[in-house]
Amino acid sequence: MAQYYQARGIENADPDDIYLGNGVSELITMVLQALLGPGDEVLIPAPDYPLWTGATKLCGGTPVHYICDEENRWWPDPEEIEAKVTENTKALVLINPNNPTGAVYPRHILEKLVDIARRHHLMLLADEIYENITFDDVEMVNAASLSDDVVTITFSGLSKTWRVAGFRSGWIYVSGPKQRAASYLEGLELLMNMRMCANVPAQHALQAALGGYQSIGELIAPGGRLYEQRTTAHRLLNEIPGVDAHRADGALYLFLAWMQRCTPSKMMRPSSSSCCVPRRFWSRTGARSTGRTPSTSGWWRCPVSRTWRRPLRGSLTSSATIARERSRASEAACAQAPGRGQAASAVLLQLLTDLLEALLGAGEPPLAPVRQGFAALPQRQ
Amino acid sequence: MTDRTKALVVINLNNPTGAVYPKEILEALVDIARRHNLILMADEIYEKITYDGAEAINMCTLADDVFTITYSGLSKTWRAAGFRSGWCYISGPQYRAKSYLEGLQLMSNLRMCPNVPGQHAIQTALGGYQSIDDLIAPGGLLHEQRQVAYDRLREIEGVQVEQMDGAMYLFPRLDPEIYPIESDEAFVIELLRQQKILVSHGRAFNWIDDQHFRLVTLPAVAELESAIEGISDFLAGYRTPSAPHGCSEAG
Ligand SMILES: Cc1ncc(COP(=O)(O)O)c(C=O)c1O
Known about the structure:
By secondary structure, chain A is an alpha/beta fold. Chain A has helices at 2-7, 23-35, 51-58, 78-84, 107-120, 182-194, 200-210, 216-220, 225-239, 264-268, 284-290, 320-334, 343-361, 370-375; strands at residues 18-21, 41-46, 62-69, 75-76, 89-95, 123-127, 152-157, 170-175, 244-245, 253-257, 299-303. Chain A folds into two domains: 2-211, Aspartate Aminotransferase, domain 2 (3-Layer(aba) Sandwich); 264-376, no CATH class.
């Protein structure tokens, strides 16, 4: 695993700097538990992978969200981050490639984030679990490769690139001036010992996964399933009037601007585990002006990693009931073996058909696109 | 017990003492939980590892009106600790713990799920032939190791030890008249340095004095015999009045 990072340009990656966990989720919790006391602040992106916010709160810390703005390709704004650093700030979290936006951060922004961590003595927590899922040759830079003077914890695991989330196998790689973090690492080690170890059967999979032939390469290349699903979902979603989806450079998600006054939660209520799950709703204005985590309508995340087999219906009906039934049928079909390659666009069209039906069935008056409704809402402060 | 007490933890069969609690005591504990509205947390992971007919009673069988969480897993009886596979069984008036269970569910979701390969082992382990039974019967590995460890430890002057009824640990007491130990941690570190034998000091288990250590009876009989001989030699150094008390200057 150290060699994995060596191969990614971090020459002095050492086996002693790798810690194994039962998935990145467990490691996120432990890394924060060892770090945070009451009142400590952690800079977390908004939107975020919500475990980061949840775990920070559970550890008694305070999440402080920095906005990754759609208008800036969902990239973080170093100036805003810097402005939110206080004397209580302990760590800066970055999720790259990003869940839920699919953004991949460019080198110049990452360098600025590293520099902020450097100047304010923050621990840099880089959740890079999607690092090998990028499209169109976009460059993915590991934050750890950008400095050797910033304590950086890089998170990754088998759940995404290697697609065995059920194995619960993840790791962290600790780099930078570890002597400055000696007591922290001692605490982390203690927490890790308390839960004994990472499960052993899955440890056997690590070398097999990280070494040799990398099947993800095909999936993310043109013609590959993940690539085609991303591209098709993006195209079809944007064909829906009032829907505004930015193209994802990486990961498995599109993050959509939904229409104003639409209530996605009501719309999607039939099954929270269905193939399209509205995970979190962000009001652009709310998020911008307060930096908090609003739950108003506006955004939802569309996973493009799922596929299901269902004959494509030619026409759209406006019955929400049918949409719900389909949603259920889709769920059942999801349990079956996933289809391959060219099935992707048919499958996604089906997904969008369901969405549109559900939307029409929600009984709302004709919807204004977000951009129109947007102007009426409070401006950024 | 104070008005802030939330839960009562019972570790039966016990690590580090090897004790198996009798029914009367368990019933009394259940009753305390009942009267004070406590959550009963019964860590029973050694439940099938008992010797000489000792009976392990699941606390959750003693009441249906006490909210009880029973813990177990594959690590002990089924000896697959590396699988990281365990579970808890929740019983009693769950309707009174709705919000607690919701929180628990949330925490469970935060870490996604227990690893799936380990889940596949659960049915296989719990069903059918139980290899543990042979190991704890006379002639079985665990039974014999326990016997040898107990017999040899008892032979050492000033070592007071109760035979375990369950699990795989002995928790001997070193008579303070003979072994005036200042720090049990320093004592076990020195034992490790001199004899290359690792035991755990009593305070590591939050025990209240410095006179205990835990011996794990998992090594084979021959290894246990030579290890306990090493412990005996080491203790001889502590016994002689000229020997330094404590180990603070050592190493
Ligand atoms: C950004 C991010 N980090 C971590 C995880 C969790 O990964 P694991 O399965 O290793 O716990 C996810 C999964 O959704 C994720 O999106």
